[in-house]
Structures are given as structure tokens and as C-alpha cells.
Design brief:
Blueprint lengths: L6 E2 L10 H13 L10 H21 L6 E4 L2 H16 L4 E5 L4 H11 L4 E5 L9 H7 L4 E5 L13 H11 L3 E4 L18 E5 L10 E5 L28 H39 L3 E3 L10 E6 L14 E2 L15 H5 L4 H5 L1 E5 L6 H21 L1
Parallel strand pairs: 1-11, 3-4, 3-5, 5-6, 6-7
Antiparallel strand pairs: 2-8, 7-8, 9-10, 10-12
Helix pairs in contact: 1-7, 2-7, 3-4, 5-6, 7-10
């Protein structure tokens, strides 16, 4: 089978919307153009029902109550609302425990709090790229008001022990905020079971539309109180005012519904593709390092370092592949990845690294083509070094 190029393997940055998602969005945009807040007529009622149906699908994927889901413009907004909204509700500055693996959507609001009197302890990680819950427990203090730990790292794909960290937080009465943008829809997430108080979700990481996300905010045992960051019409429990994107939210709901039904099959497919690609590449090319634990990672997610080349030329040598050198939010930076640096990866190897992630639509031919293409490009770069 011929492979169409470029082959898209940048699914950590964004996934292609599933055709079923696009169909739902088109239908909703065409047929349900009423404002969900218009409570005086059938057009508003119909649009409101679309939003609530989607809320049920999102809640079902996260294993929480629909009343605990707040729709946002994406996981970054959800993370900001979680961190800054909790801090505003607390009022007086306190202490936060975070990890070196967090996405900028969490790091940036924590930096903002640090400039306003909050104390932030950032816990390090070893070469496996998996947090040690005991390290997080040791960093907590009497005045700790929040712990932040993502579910899956967005550059290296490693899965974090959220359930154990949630247990520690529950024992100490401290809310756990979990960025699940990469994990939800790819691996099972269960916010209630795992003791997560706040969870950020993203549609476009699970074959849904861009510009739509959600925040799970626990309402009981105990309730987490947030202050809104914006003020307006009182939508989304007053936490996210403004007229919602009904079609986008419907697409998010459909993406969650599909993910729930395909979770196991997708995971098996992606894991098989990742393993095939990796074994083929290792057979063709020496000096390839897999960054992070091989087993405890998102299926089909790989971050690889290539010895003996200059990193600046690697991406330009791969026009047939859509891959990246790190997180999309920092792709314009010339600095080595702070995530790889935290794992102890030498700067030269970190600069010569690629992030790639297969999708549910990826094929065996794509995996083989990617391995062959990377091997040829790296060998050529080494020959010129």
C-alpha cells in the first residue's frame, strides 16, 4: 500500500477530528443555532439540550457527575481556572506542590501566583519520567493548599501515578489538580476514584474540535470552591460566562462518546504501532534513545533522541513526516526541552530529539515508512557531521 505524505505523527499537538465528530458539529451548527440561555422559546431549549447531552458524555468519560463539568475554551483555560480560581477563593497566599513535568498551562499560572506571595515547590523526576508519590508527599506542608500533577506528560508520553498521589492528597485534605489533556480519551481516567478534585480536559487531543475543553470541579466529599476569573452572564455555574460554542461542545461530547467505546481497541492498535515502529527503527539505526519509561506511557507515544547529529537540522531533514521536537506551545524556542533536561538528558541529545505519536487512523505502513524515513535522514546527517 502506498503511503500518502507527509505522514501525520504530531498527535500530541492535535488530532484530526473524527468524521463522526465533524458530522455532529455540522448538523448542530445548521439546526441548533439558538442561544442556550434563551429560556423563552424552543430554539433556546434545543440548544441547551445539546450542551447538556454533551456534558453527560464528557462526564461519563471522566467518571464524574455532569453537574461537575464546566465547559471552557480548552484545557489551558480549564487549568488556569482551576489554579487561579482556587487561589482566588482561598484569598490569602499559601503553598502549592507541583511537578517539573507540568505543561505551561499549569506552570504559567503557578508562576503568576508565585509573584503574588504564594510559595510553589516543584518536585523533580528521575530518568524514567514518572513521578514518585513519596516525593510529592514529602514536599507537602501544613499550609499546602493545592497539589498539581498531570496524568500524562505531553512531550515524553509517560503516565503518572495519579491514583496514589490522589490518595495522599485525600488523606491530607489537599485538593489535587490534574491536567488530563493528553490522557483523557487515550487511557482510562476516573477522577472520582483517584481522588482528583480538579481536572482539565481537551477536545482536540481526542479527535474533537480545537477551542473546546472542560474543567471537572468536585462538588462534594469535599466540595472544591473556585472563584471565577471572568464575569458576565453567569453561564457554566458562573465560572465561565459567555455564550457557549454549541457546535464545538457537541463535537467534544461526540469525541468523548467515541473514545469511551473505542478506548481498549485504540490503545491496542496504538501500542502495536509504537512497538513496531520502535523495533524497526532500532534494527535500522544505532544510537537511538527512548526518553522515559517504555511501559508506563501513552500507547503509541514516543520521544526519541539521536546521537551523533546536530539537532537544528533534524526536522528540516524530515519533510515527509509531521513530527515535532517538543511541545507545540514551545515550538518556537531554541532552548533544549526543560522536560528532557529534568530527566537528565544531555543537552546535545535533547536538541536532537523527536516527539511523535500515532493516531487511531495510523497504519502499519505509516509506522514502517516513518521508521525507514527517520533512519535514512539520521544516517545522512551523521555522514555530514
Amino acid at each position: 500500500m502506498a503511503v500518502r505524505t507527509p505522514v501525520y505523527l504530531d498527535n500530541h499537538a492535535s488530532t484530526a477530528p473524527d468524521p463522526a465528530v465533524l458530522e455532529v458539529m455540522q448538523r448542530i451548527a445548521r439546526d441548533h443555532y439558538g442561544n442556550p440561555a434563551s429560556a423563552g422559546h424552543a430554539f433556546g431549549w434545543a440548544a441547551a439540550k445539546v450542551v447538556e447531552d454533551a456534558r453527560e458524555h464528557v462526564a461519563s468519560l471522566a467518571r464524574v457527575s455532569p453537574r461537575e463539568i464546566v465547559f471552557t475554551g480548552g484545557a489551558t483555560e480549564a487549568a488556569n481556572l482551576a489554579v487561579l480560581g482556587l487561589a482566588a477563593a482561598v484569598g490569602t497566599p499559601g503553598h502549592v506542590v507541583s511537578t517539573v513535568l507540568e505543561h505551561a498551562a499549569v506552570r504559567a499560572p503557578l508562576d503568576w501566583l508565585a509573584g503574588r506571595g504564594w510559595q510553589v515547590t516543584t518536585v523533580g523526576v528521575g530518568a524514567a519520567g514518572v513521578m514518585d508519590p513519596d516525593d510529592i508527599a514529602a514536599a507537602m506542608r501544613e499550609d499546602t493548599r493545592l497539589v498539581c500533577c498531570l496524568a500524562a506528560q505531553n512531550e515524553i508520553g509517560t503516565l503518572q501515578p495519579v491514583a496514589r498521589i490522589g490518595e495522599i492528597c485525600r488523606e491530607r485534605g489537599v485538593p489535587l489538580m490534574c491536567d488530563a489533556a493528553q490522557a483523557a480519551g487515550r487511557v482510562p481516567v476516573d477522577a472520582a476514584r483517584d481522588g482528583v478534585a480538579l481536572m482539565a480536559l481537551s477536545a482536540h487531543k481526542m479527535y474533537g474540535p480545537k477551542g473546546v475543553g472542560a474543567l471537572y470541579a468536585r462538588r462534594r466529599d469535599p466540595r472544591v470552591t473556585l472563584a471565577p476569573l471572568c464575569h458576565g452572564g453567569g453561564q457554566e455555574r458562573g465560572l465561565r460566562p459567555g455564550t457557549p460554542d454549541v457546535a464545538g461542545i457537541a463535537g467534544f461530547g461526540e469525541a468523548c462518546r467515541l473514545a469511551a467505546t473505542r478506548l481498549d481497541a485504540d490503545a491496542a492498535h496504538l501500542r502495536a504501532l509504537g512497538d513496531r515502529f520502535l523495533e524497526r527503527l532500532w534494527g535500522l539505526l544505532p544510537g537511538v534513545t527512548l526518553h522515559g519509561d517504555r511501559a508506563r506511557r501513552l500507547p503509541g507515544s514516543l520521544n526519541l533522541g539521536f546521537a551523533g547529529i546536530k539537532g537544528a537540522g533534524l526536522l528540516s531533514a524530515l519533510p515527509q513526516l509531521a513530527v515535532s521536537s517538543g511541545a507545540a506551545c514551545s515550538s518556537g524556542s531554541d532552548e533544549p526541552s526543560p522536560i528532557l533536561a529534568a530527566l537528565g538528558v544531555p543537552g546535545e541529545l535533547a536538541a536532537a530529539s523527536l516527539r511523535l505519536c500515532f493516531a487511531r487512523t495510523s497504519t502499519i505502513e505509516d509506522a514502517d515508512f516513518a521508521a525507514d524515513t527517520i533512519a535514512v535522514a539520521v544516517l545522512a546527517l551523521r555522514a555530514r557531521a
